[in-house]
């Protein structure tokens, strides 16, 4: 292909719509997202990128994506880059998703240490990629089902996500009726309350909310502020958006943060890959730290 033909094709509309969106625009946006969050966006996602960002162009009074790319890549584009990242981040979650993980947490992690926790033992669990809070609150409810007084003990759940909007949603802890259906009725009745502002919504009660600390965190950032050790780390359906080298890097950073009997829970479609030397299998998509994965 001649350079002239390649240039012409790269400037043709990649998606037909209100705004000019070319292959060059897609390449620039994909590069920014990968550099910022480690998320890989192929050209097959062009329609999704267009649909999620068109509103931003409209609000900013722009007429083509090249101008938007200039804005987010420029020295004054930090805020809009964060907005773009929030718009392009996929947040699919639900309460007690992949329920066998919560059964395993209850039976294999919590049950052996319940008495120790009641006597003052520290319990720490991290929900990495917490989305709008259903996962960390499912963890909290699992703990409360075994230790109703957990909020008065040394029990803490860290919930992190790169998307500031879903972190705020999780912190608020308000969910529509259909979203809370997977929560067992007994737990819902005891630990949740009807949102007084909307009869169709539920609010996570003060006790489980007090157990969860929501924070923004970029998993591919140069350093993580938490030092562990964690009795369990949930990182499920997060790294599927990363390429293999980035996945390997993230998995390897979890290993030294796990307590000796700690567990790592991953998504059903995810694989540990080369980082598997740092872990030992302990069930379906459940891993424990291998002997050689020492804490720093």
List strands and helices in order, with pairings.
Elements (H helix, E strand, L loop, with lengths): L2 H8 L12 H15 L8 H15 L4 H9 L4 H11 L10 H12 L3 H5 L4 E6 L5 H13 L8 E7 L2 H9 L1 E3 L8 H7 E3 L6 E4 L1 H6 E5 L13 E6 L8 H11 L3 E9 L12 E3 L4 E4 L7
Parallel strand pairs: 1-2, 1-7, 2-6, 7-8
Antiparallel strand pairs: 3-5, 4-5, 8-10, 9-10
Helix pairs in contact: 2-4, 6-8
Architecture overview:
The protein is an alpha/beta fold. The protein folds into 2 domains: 3-88, Orthogonal Bundle (Chemotaxis Receptor Methyltransferase Cher, domain 1), CATH 1.10.155.10; 99-289, Rossmann fold. It is built from 12 helices and 10 strands. It has helices at 3-10, 23-37, 46-60, 65-73, 78-88, 99-110, 114-118, 134-146, 164-172, 185-191, 206-211, 244-254, and strands at residues 123-128, 155-161, 174-176, 192-194, 201-204, 212-216, 230-235, 258-266, 279-281, 286-289. The strands form 2 sheets. Strands 6-2-1-7-8-10-9 form a 7-stranded mixed β-sheet. Strands 3-5-4 form a 3-stranded antiparallel β-sheet. Helix 8 links the parallel strand 1 and strand 2 (155-161). Helix 6 packs across helix 8. It is globular. The protein starts with a helix and ends in a 7-residue tail after the last strand. Residues 1-8 have low confidence and may be disordered.
């Amino acid at each position: 292909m001649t350079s002239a033909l390649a240039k012409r094709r790269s400037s043709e509309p990649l998606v037909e719509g209100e705004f000019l969106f070319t292959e060059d625009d897609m390449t620039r946006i994909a590069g920014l997202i990968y550099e910022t969050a480690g998320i890989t966006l192929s050209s097959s996602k062009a329609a999704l990128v267009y649909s999620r960002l068109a509103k931003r162009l409209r609000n900013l009074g722009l007429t083509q994506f090249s101008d938007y790319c200039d804005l987010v890549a420029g020295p004054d584009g930090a805020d809009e880059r964060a907005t773009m990242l929030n718009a392009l981040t996929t947040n699919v979650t639900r309460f007690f998703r992949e329920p066998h993980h919560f059964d395993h947490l209850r039976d294999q992690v919590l049950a052996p240490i319940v008495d120790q926790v009641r006597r003052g033992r520290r319990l720490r669990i991290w929900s990495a990629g917490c989305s709008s809070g259903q996962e960390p609150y499912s963890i909290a409810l699992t703990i409360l089902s075994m230790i109703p007084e957990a909020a008065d003990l040394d029990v803490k759940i860290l919930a992190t996500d790169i998307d500031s909007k879903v972190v705020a949603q999780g912190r608020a802890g308000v969910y529509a009726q259909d979203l809370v259906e997977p929560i067992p009725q007994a737990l819902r009745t005891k630990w949740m309350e009807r949102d007084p502002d909307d009869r169709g919504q539920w609010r996570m009660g003060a006790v489980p909310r007090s157990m969860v600390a929501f924070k923004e965190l970029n998993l591919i950032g140069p350093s993580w502020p938490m030092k562990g050790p964690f009795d369990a780390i949930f990182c499920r359906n997060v790294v599927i958006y990363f390429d293999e080298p980035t996945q390997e890097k993230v998995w390897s950073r979890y290993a030294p943060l796990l307590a000796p009997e700690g567990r790592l829970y991953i998504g059903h479609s995810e694989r540990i890959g080369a980082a598997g030397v740092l872990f030992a299998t302990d069930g379906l998509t459940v891993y424990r730290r291998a002997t050689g994965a020492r804490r720093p």
